[in-house]
Amino acid sequence: MTNGECDKRGVHEIREIRQFHFTGWPDHGVPYHATGLLGFVRQVKSKSPPNAGPLVVHCSAGAGRTGCFIVIDIMLDMAEREGVVDIYNCVRELRSRRVNMVQTEEQYVFIHDAILEACLCGDTSVPASQVRSLYYDMNKLDPQTNSSQIKEEFRTLNMVTPTLRVEDCSIALLPRNHEKNRCMDILPPDRCLPFLITIDGESSNYINAALMDSYKQPSAFIVTQHPLPNTVKDFWRLVLDYHCTSVVMLNDVDPAQLCPQYWPENGVHRHGPIQVEFVSADLEEDIISRIFRIYNAARPQDGYRMVQQFQFLGWPMYRDTPVSKRSFLKLIRQVDKWQEEYNGGEGRTVVHCLNGGGRSGTFCAISIVCEMLRHQRTVDVFHAVKTLRNNKPNMVDLLDQYKFCYEVALEYLNSG
Known about the structure:
The structure is a single chain. By secondary structure, the protein is of the alpha+beta class. It has helices at residues 35-47, 64-82, 87-97, 105-121, 131-138, 149-160, 232-241, 325-343, 358-376, 381-389, 399-414; strands at 2-7, 14-19, 126-127, 141-142, 147-148, 209-212, 221-225, 244-249, 268-271, 274-284, 287-296, 304-312, 348-353, 378-379. It has 2 domains: 2-123, Protein-Tyrosine Phosphatase, Chain A (Alpha-Beta Complex); 159-414, Protein-Tyrosine Phosphatase, Chain A. Helix 8 (325-343) packs across helix 11 (399-414) and helix 9 runs parallel beside helix 11 (399-414). This is protein-tyrosine-phosphatase. It holds the Pfam family Y_phosphatase. It comes from Odobenus rosmarus divergens (Pacific walrus).
């Protein structure tokens, strides 16, 4: 969102213009899921005052994508006011005024998907000022149903989470990649795989990892499993190839579970052409931070990259959630600070737990929620988790983890 001012020549009148730019529409086709565009449409609606003039909507030709936005906007209003939708006649009416509005069958189907998701999920965003009272109400148990609003919200989330099919994960399921997967039921879909670029002998370009968007930055996170003994080399290839500046570790080193220590405590570790050099370490409460210098010895002209690993000690393996909300929020803030200081917020963050599932998803979801609070002063845990699950269904896989996201948001608000 960009704010600007314009004045009319010869007239002493200044108007504020807000430009909303949706960056998640691919060059061809439609977005894979409607979650992002729905959030965008709702944000535009919430930021447009009642007395505002007409909304200017454009894409390249002012037809296909523009038509999708307008139809979704109209249908959301119609569903709220009348309890029904009529996509067919809405598109017909638009086409009577401008040719090719909603250009393709794919766009027409996408509109139906978007409205279905909107009707099933509702608007789950909450102004920052109302989070505390709303969360209290959400946890109240209804004696008639023996359920609560937050349980029902999580049940809805599970219902609308897409299921990955075998063909969605065809690369992870290739026989040569089986030994690189810790759990054969937790696999990344082909569409969000970060393919390894650095050449290393006969090793394949596959790693069990998935690219995830943050609130403002596409593919800001790479969620992965703790490296197996045979994938440590691939892990560091991933860090180097995708310009990662932070590594967040949410589990313990445990050789019995094939979770080796993959970093040097001093000196240099060599992983094929990649060299990982220990620089420094620091312990502060529940967080060990280590800084490494990594580079490709086969390409010295590329220089080196500084990477900080944040090992979080406050989440024992027997617990579903971290021990302390305050220390987890501190972890989020330390990662954000390093990202901003070292690379202007542009570097990616690798997040891993044992299997690249619930814990990693909880970190990413809370990071997104904190970003929402900073930029929009709203909280939408449902939207944050749904966005992550669109790529990987096991993100934030427990109700207690889902509640924890709300609780850290409250901690964020309390801390100022």
